[in-house]
Amino acid sequence: MVGDCRWLTFSNGPAFTEVPLAVETEVSGERQPRDDICTRLIAGSAGIVPYMGHDDVTHLHGMHVVHSGPRQAPPLVLIHGSGFSGGSWSPVVPALADQYHVIRVDLPGHGQSSPAPSYDVPEQVGRLAAVLDELGLRPVAVVGHSSGGYIATALAEQRPDLVGSLALISSGPSPDAFLPQPVLGDR
């Protein structure tokens, strides 16, 4: 339910998976928000506390990579937008890491990743694909936020063998995807 933030829904190929954002407490038996995540998601960035329950942190191909959740679970890759880092996904990781192997990356020049000689989308996709190849993960569900959606979309286009499903948040097509429109006076 979107309005009251009870579930987060992800596409996993043709099926959808619902992740509960509320759990029953042992004391009262009432449903309470898990780690107050609903309040933090609805309220925005105020009160967001970084998720510190990660399993593993590595650096691969110049990118900072954080793994959360069981490694044998379905892989879910979270890609941040410009000016952010993988840490921007921290508020939703607790709800996801119970059922997914969550992989957060810091794109080159962001967070704890090294600067790169080029920030072109194909270059970033190549680095991310190399990370996923080295980790042996495929197919993965990919979520891209803002300009991270450009990376996610390009990854699905360039390496369809890696991507099983794709979700874009506050993202649109790359500006070069728009077709030129005729001027109204040119007929």
TrEMBL record:
Pfam families: Abhydrolase_1. It comes from the Bacteria. Gene3D superfamilies: alpha/beta hydrolase. This is AB hydrolase-1 domain-containing protein. The lineage of its organism: Bacteria, Bacillati, Actinomycetota, Actinomycetes, Kitasatosporales. Coiled coil: none annotated. Residues 74-180 form the AB hydrolase-1 domain.
